[in-house]
């Protein structure tokens, strides 16, 4: 069994670390939040006094932090985790961060003699709890092979997407599809309402026709057709609009840098930005349908 350091024990990291404990690993955790640490300790994670202390004897270090600056701030520099860990330690960053920061993470790891993988996830808090996350990984074949048995304890689908940063690239491309498709499905339901079409009739047709997509069949933005979707609980997340906006901004940042034409992605980011500005950051992202409906004459 491996010694694993887990840095960032929040909504996602806490249950992910708990699944590594369940697999029989010695998991040394650290978080800046006392509440996150207490919750993780209750699930069998042994707490370290600092992140540097947590990684000292680790074979594998997993980071699950909010954004690129948090990750680079934690791992780089004279008092960062690359300096504190033993040479050859495998660093897995599962946070959703920008592609440029992910590449800097890999470059820093290589310079320090560490192995590294960017491995963001899809599947939300429910997937983290159940150990059914999808991991999309970027890095060398050797790093991927070494990480895979550990990722399999936290997820059920593990995809090697390519070299450094490829996991983050796949994540933001997927979530750009998600943001755009949720708006498309919401606009279709609002148009259907104006045309006198029932929600169920539109669902029955589109879910078995060419309009079929995850935003419709799993996460339907109107109550009724999919009883488990957040629309049935007044848009409690689920996947909060603030996280959707974060990912759409990351995809637009990457598109600008890469020179890709993503006009619908840009429009989706603008709509979610306006939605968030009206106090909806903590609501499920499928609540955008109410914002669209409110603008319909
Ligand atoms: P969270 O805010 O619940 O957890 C982040 C944790 O990191 C917090 O507990 C915070 O105290 C801790 N932290 C920040 N800086 C730190 C540092 N320097 N050292 C130690 N701990 C530090 O966020 P989350 O929902 O767990 O998300 C984590 C990452 O996963 C984000 O990048 C997010 O975009 C991504 N993600 C989230 C979801 C989701 O549904 N919540 C789904 C997929 C991906």
Automatic annotation (TrEMBL):
GO biological process: L-valine catabolic process
Domain 6-phosphogluconate dehydrogenase NADP-binding: from-to ranges: 4-162
Residue stretches spanning the membrane: none
Coiled coil: none
Domain 3-hydroxyisobutyrate dehydrogenase-like NAD-binding: 165-291
Keyword Ligase in record: no
Keyword Chaperone attributed: no
Annotated metabolic or biological route of this protein: Amino-acid degradation; L-valine degradation
Active site: 171
InterPro entries referenced in this protein's UniProt entry, alphabetically: 3-OH-isobutyrate_DH-rel_CS (IPR002204), 6-PGluconate_DH-like_C_sf (IPR008927), 6PGD_dom2 (IPR013328), 6PGDH_NADP-bd (IPR006115), HIBADH (IPR011548), HIBADH-like_NADP-bd (IPR029154), HIBADH-related (IPR015815), NAD(P)-bd_dom_sf (IPR036291)
Keywords, sorted A to Z: Branched-chain amino acid catabolism, NAD, Oxidoreductase
Catalytic activity field: 3-hydroxy-2-methylpropanoate + NAD(+) = 2-methyl-3-oxopropanoate + NADH + H(+)
Superkingdom, natural source: Bacteria
Record-stated family: Belongs to the HIBADH-related family.
Name of the protein this chain belongs to: 3-hydroxyisobutyrate dehydrogenase
Taxonomic source organism: Azorhizobium caulinodans (strain ATCC 43989 / DSM 5975 / JCM 20966 / LMG 6465 / NBRC 14845 / NCIMB 13405 / ORS 571)
